[in-house]
Amino acid sequence: MTTHGGFEPVFCTIVPPHVLDKLARNEDPALSGPARRTLMRDAQERGRRRVTTEYGLAAAAPTAKAPSQRPLRTVYDAGRQTVLPGTKVRGEGEDPGQDATVNRAYSGLGATFDLFLKAYGRHSIDGDGLPLDATVHYDEKYGNAFWNGEQMVFGDGDGEIFLDFTIPIDVIGHELAHGVTQYTANLTYFGQPGALNESMSDVFGSLIKQYTLGQTAAEADWLIGAGLLAPSVTGKALRSMKEPGSAYDDDVLGKDPQPATMDDYVRTGRDNGGVHINSGIPNHAFYLAATALGGHAWEKAGQIWYDALSGGELTERAFFGDFAKLTVKAARERFGDGGEELQAVAKAWEQVGVRIL
User: Fold this and answer.
1) What pTM was computed for the model?
2) Nearest-angstrom CA–CA distance, 292 and 323
3) Which of 276, 284, 296, 341 is catalytic?
4) What pLDDT, in 10s, does the model give residues 67-96?
5) The one catalytic residue among 45, 175, 198, 341
């Protein structure tokens, strides 16, 4: 059983399980306690998603749709409980309140809507005016944010390792982009297809931040989750697209394990086959293509990646090489055989060691 037009949603979080596993084993209960609670909550939500999908219990597709040029946003407050969606605290068009977390969530939903509409002509996450719902203040010291197939959910963090998950706008964009993938290629959340799924969210999460800030590819920091880590953590973000493996190197969190090329591809049974780890490879390919082309990354490299994702040829079980082939095809079809775009994309995949299938 699937939902929303036949697409099967998956439960996707911004913080990788291997990071929470490391924290959960820490001797300090101030660190291990919230991490264990977060892992248990994630497991419960993942199980709920699996059961509701398999047995047809998922919510029906919403009847309301966003107006043609504007989002339809609703922000809820869980009150540090786990019942979703919670109490409605801000609807579309309503003035900002006193809660900065609510206001950031509302703005992030709008920024995501704007990028996809104005850059790619996509009307909301599903392409058909899907309302954008988000819940904030979820659970006690919950150290994650997730897309559950129907809405966004944000934790407040533990204050020791993670701060409020609405602080980085690319975290909001990342999770909502999982919805875009859900409604397009619906990439399987395991192995290389799962890493592509995660990479799509990092790519568009980064582009949403760059679009909001008006940054060029050269000006962007290419970090995912900058501002999320507490000051005590030796690190700058959760991931780096520019230099995968360099986002953090901390006594508590350990070292960022992401590879930048296929030479260091990680084979593991954990984290759904390393979906948050090996996503560094296609992430780096996008960074290389975008910076080679220069200007605003959403205009050329982003357009090519969006075309490949949404064009109807990317299968659910696509490997890196399959996607690379489609980006080359998209570059050729949109910009021509002799353009710099085709050369930049092909060279980027070559540099990260992905053979175009």
Assistant:
1) 0.94
2) 19
3) 276
4) 778 999 999 999 999 999 999 999 999 999
5) 175
